[in-house]
Amino acid sequence: MDLKKLLKLEFLTQSSVGAAEGLGESFFSIVATRMGASAFIIALIGSSAYLSNLLSPLWAKLSKRTGVKWLVIAGLGAASFFLFSSSLFYDPLIFLIFVLLYYVGYGIKEVLYPAFVQKVYNDVSVLAHAEVAYTIAYTAAAILAGYIMYVWSYKIAFALATFLLIVAIFSRLPFPNPRGEESRGSLKNIRRDKLITAMISTFMVAGTGMLMMLPAIPMLEVDTLKLSNIQIGIAIAANSISYVFFAELWGRNIRKAEHIVRFFQIGFLGIAGMAIIYFMSTAYWHILIANVLCGLGGSAISIGWQSFSMAVPEYRTEDLSALHLTTCGIRGLYAPIIGATIISMVNLRATFLVSLLFVLGGIVMAEMARKNLRESILI
Questions:
Q1: CA distances from 313 to 150, 310, 319, 352 (A)
Q2: In contact, 239 and 294? CB cutoff 8 Å
Q3: What is the CATH number of domain 3-181+188-372?
Q4: CB 223 within 8 A of CB 272
Q5: Domain boundaries, the chain
Q6: pLDDT in tens, 39-93
Q7: Cα–Cα separations (whole angstroms), residue 39 to 10, 33, 293
Q8: DSSP result, 323-336
Q9: Of 195, 258, 193, 205, nearest to 364 (Cα)?
């Protein structure tokens, strides 16, 4: 199949996945909050995507045997099954279990997608364009999901999301099945690589602050500000519109290695601004502004790391993606729980202040990491 047809199918796949996330995944914490879940269960649901990342090295290793395509398809199939199953029970603990299992399957796509793009297209800009297709669909679906949940039930939205994941599976079938290549550099010796360790350390600090906010955000929106699902869906859409605009901007402007670090810093600044707005929020329009800043920050960080993982020739793309996602999983083990503890022992808004300090620390560390950039990075 020629490249143009593959690109059309690529955008169909990303649109289907984006719409599925908007209808289902984006409301996991909100649904759990309305079920009456505790701050700790909400924290675990928020961190489920990151906990599943601990399996990233396994997916990267298996891709060398099974090929990237079939592993991604299997993961989407598992995700669709567990997403639908989660709608059959109205119990916070059971819901948590199915959400975690959903992310175990869905996480396969997260770690292998940059490698898939590299092997099939060998073009970083495809990542940005795919993000646009994904986010447009996600935006529309999030608004629709808020309406569906307001008028009918979250179960209807989750059923539609399941169907769209199945569409994504079938649209991925015509693609080639590239296999993971042998490692160019051993990640066992990662401590000797000052650049990689500096980047990982930066994200460990800033990422801790980001994940600490996970239980606080839905509780602030649902319990404190009393927002409806429609209002929350519109806020998620504002996040997505911001994300798609800035993702396209970042993808067009990464020209040298230093830009990657600058985008990380811009991303951290956006997340820091979001934390400040959430801390001060008393009205719905504050939430809208916070979500716009979240989209700005999240897009810079996402495009930046995907570009970085493709640009370091000493290591396989999927190995660096797996390393990043694994450290995300490590943060997911403790950061949301710290946030829930602060909510229980101090108050909800204090979580945003503590998170802010960690994110600002990440900005400083990113500047220090810039000194370790090397000429071998290929942009």
A1: 49, 8, 11, 38
A2: yes
A3: 1.20.1250.20
A4: no
A5: 3-181+188-372
A6: 888 888 887 877 777 777 777 777 777 777 788 888 889 999 999 998 888 889 9
A7: 38, 8, 24
A8: HHHHHHHHHHHHHH
A9: 205
